[in-house]
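STRUCTURE REQUEST FORM
Protein name: Amidohydrolase family protein
Source organism: Duganella flavida
Requested output: structure tokens
Priority: standard
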Amino acid sequence: MNISFKQLSGAMLALGLLSAAHAADKIAADLVLTKATLIDVAGGKAVKGKSVVLKGDTILAVVDDKQLVNYAAKKTISLPGKYVMPGLWDTHVHFGGGPALIDENKHLLQLYLAYGITAVRDCSGDLPDTVLQWRDEVNQRKLEGPTIFTSAAKLEGYKPLWKGTIEVGTPEEVSRALDKLQSQKVDFVKITENTLKPEIYLEALRQAKERGMRTSGHIPVQLTLKTMFDAGLGTVEHQSYLLRASTPREEELTAQVAAGKITSKEAVKQSLDSYDEATARSSFRYMASKGTAVVPTLSVSRVVAYLDHDDHAHDEALQYIGAGLRATYDWRVQRAAQDDATAIAQRKAVFEKSASLLPILQQEGVSIIAGTDAGFLNSYDYPGQALHDEIGLYVNYGLTPAQALQSAVINGPRFLGKLDHYGALEAGKAADVLVLDANPLQDISATRKIRTVISHGNLYDRARLDKILADTKAWAAKTTAP
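Status: completed
Returned output:
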């Protein structure tokens, strides 16, 4: 069969049009991550043969590799031998130290990203308005840093120990405080107990629950853990509080503290002495049934417990912290230095027993949410690094690597009601992504081996992450304490 040049040209044109039409049918994307192993955190599984397709700050799709022909991406990164997982959350951080340290605190934002932390939950400091502003600027892409969820100012009693609080002593004052916090669109309510009357603490929980606001707090020494669970407390901040729920004598010891017959320190000692695993398990089952979670903050607790062994003067992470924030570490160091041998032994015993509760809490169904207490005041509890230390301790004390990852990826968003947007590599969720050099399901320390961080549509490769660290180190070296 003879085909003329005109017929051949027409056929080629038709093929060209078909090719163009096919290209137009492809789904536009910004970035494809392919050839890596994906980490299914919820399932605790490593998944091969799938690629992650990103558009802007959202995961467009997670597809079988062969389906990539359906996408037209501006950039494709092939990652053989690498592991891709959702970004990490530190759900207990603090920004503070007064107005003079605003700039030093602001420098922590990119530092968090350099360590793979793509979201933080600020549990109140003395810069609440500044943090609210940063939250909005990050969300509006005007400021680079992790997504910030914040309580803004915490609730406390009159003449509180902590600065940056809303002082309340009556139901009416609680109501006005919550009005203010709601107007600021806080993500949860933080309540501490130093000078807050127990009945007003419970009133704050009642009113917050009535308004649909999540709550988080320390535990008053005059109230039992069961009372707090029944009142609807969302999270217990600091696992050491749960020692009180692990003794059959909890009600007796709580009543004695409330009556002024013994100190809270003595109550903790007697709780340790009367520890009973069956009681602990029963208490934690009840805690889980009421939906109360725990944020352990083991990393800072361990640092303080063992300050007699390590003064942290040569910590590599110290070089990224401004001089003003470093100076705030002194107060815990000085307090610990006053402890005699008995007190040192006691603080170590409290830490070790508290940490040993982790697998029991997990087995009884309590949600464990990774948080570090990093920020001002908390000595050598380094923003960014501390989260890796924290989840490493979880594994050391009995959790599996998968459970530790769930605490730092899934359980925080669940507490805040944000699982529709975070916690997994799934279509429609935030493109907060880590690329790692090793498998964190096999060794939790792999979370430290970061190759790439993706946050708010920004890609930070290893060179860019190293530059953040180098720039932060150079900046910190020039700071002086106010």
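Reviewer notes: The domain at 88-417 is CATH 3.20.20.140 (TIM Barrel). The longest helix spans residues 5-25.
Form closed.
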